[in-house]
Amino acid sequence: MAISGSKYRLVIAEDHVILREGLKALLSSGPEFEVVGEAENGHEAIHCVEKYKPDLILMDLSMPRMNGMEAIREIKRQSPETKILVLTVHKAEEYVLTTLRAGADGYILKDSTHAELMIALRNVLAGKPYLSPGVSEKVIEGYLEGKKTLKKRSSWETLTQREREILKLIAEGYKNKEIAEYLCISVKTVEKHRSNLMEKLDLHNVQALTALAIEKGLVSRE
């Protein structure tokens, strides 16, 4: 945490360059924050946390290669003291609940005002959870109705982090050899993971896997 007279150190993880640069300019213009690193995917976000030891990372969810959700899990595993504020377009209850369970400290929508973003940052850095007003009611209703806590574990929830990572790459059009090279594993290992996730999900072609990846927010609809 920042000490008296110093700035909070932030990392921005966002794959859209214009938005990332705009956030950097906005946050760097005041006396509270210093943007020490930028990332355009989950892997880079994890690397930035390891390298810069920021107080907080502002995290998008829909990013290429490794999405924000998987990055949150890994960052909280490696650096539990690092605060994570999600900045996203996703309002659905499933996204909010899954993100909070992954370890996020706050959740704010991209259509929020500058003032709300500042409030969210200050709350999260102070150790207080923050949810955008637009999603708070949905989350509360979800818990009250027991939609998530009482539901049987879904096939999606049984996927390992590696299987989700490979699913995302498949949906982005990568072939087994390319996935193996990117993840530094053997093609045989990729094929095994691919077979496992298809069996768990009961989906047996690329089109079905891609549709699910889009539905779950692993890849963008764009």
Question: Would you kindly provide a written description of the structure presented here, covering whatever features stand out?
Answer:
The chain is an alpha/beta fold and 222 residues long. The protein has a 6-stranded parallel sheet with strand order 2-1-3-4-5-6, sandwiched between helices. The longest helix has 15 residues, at 187-201. The protein has 2 domains: 8-144, Response regulator (Rossmann fold), CATH 3.40.50.2300; 156-215, Orthogonal Bundle (Arc Repressor Mutant, subunit A). It has helices spanning 17-28, 42-52, 68-78, 93-102, 114-125, 133-144, 161-171, 176-183, 187-201, 206-215; strands spanning 8-13, 33-39, 56-59, 83-88, 106-109, 130-131. The N and C termini lie far apart (37 Å). The chain contains 10 helices and 6 strands. Helix 2 (42-52) runs parallel beside helix 3. The radius of gyration is 18 Å and the shape is globular. Strand 4, helix 4 and strand 5 form a beta-alpha-beta unit.
Write the layout of secondary structure elements.
Layout: E1 8-13, H1 17-28, E2 33-39, H2 42-52, E3 56-59, H3 68-78, E4 83-88, H4 93-102, E5 106-109, H5 114-125, E6 130-131, H6 133-144, H7 161-171, H8 176-183, H9 187-201, H10 206-215
Parallel strand pairs: 1-2, 1-3, 3-4, 4-5, 5-6
Helix pairs in contact: 2-3, 7-9, 7-10, 8-9
